[in-house]
Amino acid sequence: xxxxxxxxxxxxxxxxxxxxxxxxxxxxxxxxxxxxxxxxxxxxxxxxxxxxxxxxxxxxxxxxxxxxxxxxxxxxxxxxxxxxxxxxxxxxxxxxx
Length: 97
Fold this sequence. Notes:
There is one protein chain. The chain contains 2 helices and 5 strands, in the order αββββαβ. It is α+β, with helices and mostly antiparallel strands. A 5-stranded antiparallel β-sheet has the order 4-3-2-1-5.
């Protein structure tokens, strides 16, 4: 995934759209960590690291996805990191449970 000052490729756009789409649908999401743990939750909105909405002209790559975890706590995951994880399969939507 490129950084906010770099070009955005078609692959980047598809991965970013998966993250934004999950938030728009309040989809169930899963994120796998390198240690083998998987965290499950519900995507909520795209905003800043405190959960505030961002402006419509802000760079979404600098924003955060708010996810309500199964534990009930909210996590704020950087969109650019999640887009890279969509590409490698460690962040995805799921429809079971």
